[in-house]
Amino acid sequence: MNRREIVLASIVHVLGARPNFVKAAPVIGALRAAGAEQAVIHTGQHYDARMSEIFFTELGLPEPDVNLGVGSGGHAEQTAALLVGLEKEFTSRSPALVIVYGDVNSTIAAALVAAKLQIPVAHVEAGLRSFDMSMPEEVNRRITDQLSALCLVTSPEGIGHLAAEGVPVHRTHLVGNPMIDTLLANLGSFDTDRVREAHGLPGRYVLATMHRPANVDAPETAAALVRHLHGVADLADLVIPVHPRGRANLLAAGLDDHDGVHILEPLGYIDFIAAVRGAAAVVTDSGGLQEETTILGVPCLTVRPNTERPITITHGTNRLVTFEELVPGVRKSLDGGSGGSSPLIGTAPEPGPVAADRKPPLWDGHAGPRIAEVIMRYLGE
Prior knowledge:
The protein is α/β, with parallel strands linked by helices. The protein folds into 2 domains: 3-177 and 362-380, Rossmann fold; 191-358, Glycogen Phosphorylase B (Rossmann fold), CATH 3.40.50.2000. The chain is built from 17 helices and 13 strands. It has a 7-stranded parallel sheet with strand order 3-2-1-4-5-6-7, sandwiched between helices. A 6-stranded parallel sheet has the order 10-9-8-11-12-13, with helices on both faces. α2 crosses α8 (178-185), α2 crosses α17 and α5 packs parallel to α6 (136-147).
């Protein structure tokens, strides 16, 4: 085996939470098609089978070569366990490149360990910024980008953010959104009628997901959120797959004390996106769901003061709301109004994939091959 073959045979992907799996699937597939040998390290940051293992099956991901099983814990405890486990793996494998995804603790831990061992890092979803340093994710993504040899950017504004932070232009590549690759590749599998029947969902519903620390960690904040979610349920049935984070606080606040609230366990990718596709509107504090609803044409109201995905706002498919603005915003969406500053919210009589010319740039289902091309060229050089 010559040196080029050795280099191309040692790519390691680090995956820790369910959004990572969705983003990684098209990248791993494209690199496999390009002839690269790869290893997958599952950190176990999301340890519930419904939030990790099922994704490998549904998305055609290879079985992880190792599962570190770090589980939950405080930021220091979890990140420390990740640093120790990943250092052992990287030292034994000596990869030519480590690929990380998104902005979870597994992402920053892998980037930090690789940098200390002088292993180059490729960051998929680089350049996203909320400019809110109270968010752990913002800390993670900023530091990861500084440590990365390849910053693989999903939307154009990320190029400017990286340039403003001094990231050299040759490290930055606009490649599109691999999460959208996965969505478009599975579009025919999102059977809303099947999911509605399997989980007893009503004919018309608003789907909600809530897990951000700012919304669910403090009992008094969770209680305020629940009051407003009950207000949404007064307008239409509310379906909410409850994330392990915040579950105790939301239930203690009486989330299920409303006949219109339907609480579900976390769903696999196919069932979850099928449920999203059939929703009259989505209420969330998730990052990725803002992107997925943009492509599916489902009105989205994001319960946060900011977003690292402003392209969903400028495209008119998403709107930021406070607790107090949530019920009026949902009412406008359900009534077919614009919901305020987002012109597309509520305008589609039947939710469905948006036309190609309405999608953000390069959200076309081909980000995985673009990423593979950048990586193979980098390793070849």
